[in-house]
Design goal:
Structural class of chain A: mainly alpha
Largest sheet of chain A: 3 strands, antiparallel
Largest interface: A-B, 43 and 42 residues
Strand content of chain A: 5-15%
Number of helices of chain A: 6
Order of helices and strands of chain A: HEHHEEHHH
Radius of gyration of chain A: 19 Å
Shape of chain A: elongated
Helix content of chain A: 55-70%
Oligomer: homodimer
DNA sequence: GCAGCACTACGAAATAATTCGTTGCAGCCG
DNA sequence: CGGCTGCAACGAATTATTTCGTAGTGCTGC
């Protein structure tokens, strides 16, 4: 059942904050990202309540100011979103996506390119002989 | 002004059809993708009217059955969507996205890996010496 | 000429996402 | 004890997306 949900853009911002800062109160999240976005406190609160309802967040209400935590990991979430995006935009072709991502106006640094190359090399040697579907 | 719009999922399906099949009537698009999706004809029509309103499609109404064409190219659209996605999910880091995309359960074929590697090599040699802006 | 068919146009309903105002409650300060 | 402050809950308005039903109109075959 836990099909790793696909958060909306504003939900993703909150998840990112929590992944980065750890368990936080609504106030903390709001100060961290709501204020600069020009939102009122209740907007952040409502969003987090909705996310709790969707089981995107876990809530500890033993304190007066409830403490929230992501119910989903960062990587699985990114992967789910990526898979969906890949299917919708690139017919599920990872290579198409990768080629275009690397051709972006804001390319990767040399170090990043090296990391990518290493992964490619490893994948190539791994698929040596046991490919083709 | 022409900020290469970010089509919605169903808009993208129609654009994909038109990119692939060239200028088409609503009927053709509907037979191509609407029927199998269980939509009625007017749903496809309405969608295309909306897209025309948003200037996502160009319409030739000299014939009784209007002929539609994408007003945007496939690549610029994909790129715009990719950039948006990259920003939202990967903080704009192409390499992060690429590394995760290649680690997907449905990896690229050997040929695709080779194409990727070639691009990486070219990028690495290009960025040799002329760094950051 | 007229019936019927194919197409476009219009309006509207259903769902989801986003944003806030208002309310009610708990705890602290004097 | 009485009121002020901070917080969660609720309801509601707004906007975007998706989906159709109905209506109007021009063409074609008889």
């Amino acid at each position: 059942m836990s099909t790793t949900p696909k958060p909306t853009p504003s939900e993703l911002k909150i998840l990112k904050f929590l992944w980065q800062h750890g368990p936080s109160t609504v106030r903390e999240v709001h100060e961290g990202i709501g204020v600069s976005a020009g939102h009122s406190y209740t907007t952040t609160l409502k969003q987090m309540q909705i996310m709790h309802g969707k089981s995107l967040l876990v809530r500890d209400d033993s304190q007066r100011a409830h403490v929230f935590q992501p119910a989903v990991g960062e990587e699985p979430t990114q992967r789910a979103m990526l898979d969906d995006f890949m299917d919708r935009v690139y017919e599920g072709s990872a290579s198409q996506l990768v080629l275009q991502a690397l051709g972006t106006s804001r390319p990767a640094s040399s170090e990043e390119l090296e990391a990518i190359e290493q992964l490619v090399q490893r994948l190539r040697s791994e698929s040596d002989g046991e490919s083709e579907a």
